[in-house]
């Protein structure tokens, strides 16, 4: 019985130690260089939202910076962006850009930054295949896993 109690306590503590605290997630941006004929703006806007939602769900203590809040930074200078992140009470901020190079191949570029110093904590460049909702969800979960604990 004692082992079960110890295991339960450890199981509760381990996820907390492995997640980033106070992460501001800036709106995910898309760079579409695929030159596809069909306009996919609506689908991509939805998928950018999916990626942001997954990151917020997967990173404990995450706060999403909205497009309206981001509009306060014109131009988007480093100091202004870090100030927005500090205003949320976050210690870290994540900036994500997705590049679509073809129908099948997309890349995610993510930077995790210390909000106080502006120092780069972690940088991740990931590839994923499939321009559909599920592929973007999986990419978001994988990215969150990569970022968890990166600032420890």
UniProtKB/TrEMBL annotation:
Asked whether the UniProt record includes Signal among its keywords, one would answer yes
Leader sequence range is 1-20
Q: Which organism is it from?
A: Paracoccus saliphilus
Top-level taxon in the UniProt lineage: Bacteria
| Keywords from the UniProt entry | Signal
Which InterPro entries is this protein grouped with? DUF3280
Pfam family of the protein (one): DUF3280
Give the protein's recorded name. Answer: DUF2380 domain-containing protein
């Amino acid at each position: 019985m004692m082992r079960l109690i110890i295991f339960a306590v450890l199981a509760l503590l381990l996820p907390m130690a492995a997640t980033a605290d106070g992460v501001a997630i800036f709106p995910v941006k898309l760079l579409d260089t695929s030159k596809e004929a069909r306009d996919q703006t609506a689908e991509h806007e939805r998928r950018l939202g999916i990626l942001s939602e997954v990151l917020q769900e997967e990173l404990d203590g995450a706060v999403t910076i909205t497009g309206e809040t981001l509009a306060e930074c014109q131009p988007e200078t480093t100091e202004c962006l870090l100030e927005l992140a500090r205003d949320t009470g976050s210690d870290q901020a994540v900036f994500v850009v997705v590049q679509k190079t073809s129908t099948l191949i997309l890349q995610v570029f993510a930077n995790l930054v210390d909000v106080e110093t502006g120092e780069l904590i972690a940088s991740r460049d990931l590839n994923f295949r499939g321009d559909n909702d599920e592929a973007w969800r999986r990419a978001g979960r994988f990215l969150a896993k990569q970022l968890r604990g990166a600032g420890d």
